[in-house]
Every structure is written in C-alpha cells, then in structure tokens.
Amino acid sequence: MQPFKYVEGVAAPILAANVDTDVIMPKQFLKGIDRSGLDRGAFFDLRFLADGNPNPEFVLNQEPWKHAAFLVVGPNFGCGSSREHAVWGMKQLGIRALIGTTFAGIFYDNCQRNGVLTIQLTPAELKELGQVVSDHSTASVAIDLEAQHILLADGRAIAFKIDALRKQALMLGLDAIGTTLQRSDEIRTFEAQHLQSNPWLA
Known about the structure:
Blueprint: E1 6-14, H1 21-24, H2 38-41, H3 44-47, E2 68-73, H4 85-92, E3 97-100, H5 105-113, E4 117-120, H6 123-133, E5 140-144, E6 149-151, E7 157-159, H7 164-172, H8 176-181, H9 184-197
Parallel strand pairs: 1-2, 2-3, 3-4
Antiparallel strand pairs: 1-5, 5-6, 6-7
C-alpha cells in the first residue's frame, strides 16, 4: 500500500448523513472478478445522469473538487452492506482520507485495511471544516498524519486522534499481512521452538 505521512489535496464535502455502501458503490459494479474499473462505479448514481453524462450538480464533477484527495463526510458514513468494493472504488478515484464524525464499523475497518485514512472529529469541528472546504478558494487542505493535524488554507490546524497501531501501519504502507511479516523473525523462532517441544507435529 502507498504510505500516508503528509498529504496535500482538495477536500470535497459530501455531508449528508447515512451515506451507505450502495451509494458509494452500487451493486452492478460488484460483478467483476477483479478490482479493475471500480473508480467509475464510485458514487455512480450521484456522479452520472440517466443518459450517462456527468451530473454537473454533484460536487465531485465540479472544480476544484473533481480532483479531491479527501472527502469530508456526514455521520454514519459507509453504513449498509459490508462491501469492500466501496473502499476500493474510492481509492481508485484518488481518495486518500475520509474526515467525518462517525463511520460504520465494517466500512471503517475496510478503509484501514486498504490504506484509506479515516479521521473522526467532533460535530462542531466537522461543521467548521465542512464550511471551509465548501468554498472553492479554501478547499485545499493538508493532512499531517505524524503530527495528527489537518492544516487549513488559512493556517489553522485541527488536531485528531488515531489508534497508534493504525497510524503506524498507514505511515509505513502496511496491510495486515505486511504488519504481521514485520515480526517474521519472531514467528520463525517460535515455530522452531514449538516443533522442538512437540516433534510429533512435524
């Protein structure tokens, strides 16, 4: 996975509550046998009109938010079915982080496993941030994961908390397997000692 340390980019506001995984990745895009092309499926029914043309009213089709690296989202984002495709599609679309108040549990875990940072703020902090990034002139922000700050265009910083293990994995670009393999020497030592103590297992 791509490490996440200090990332600058445009933040797009999608502030509706309870945006579910069927909105993020509609079911017709779950038929493939691999992950390719899921960027087109991300927010498909919002991004495109019935005739297939981009919906000019949707924020991700507008400047500067069409180039968004971050989404500022409403409460309970990612609720609904536990489709990992929703995270894959957003990541292919270029989304590196989601900033909200609450996320659905399985969706939250899927984000972490796939290198998408999820930041939880208070409702007041999110309201302030949503207002800032809704203005095209102040939509660019930076996320400093090491310092745990969101840096706004006017110089203000919003601090956030994150689990230490999740932070380390994101900064190093490690998924669950990569994190486990960091301890491969210890694992091999344990295996050898365990087999020595229980030779019948061999």
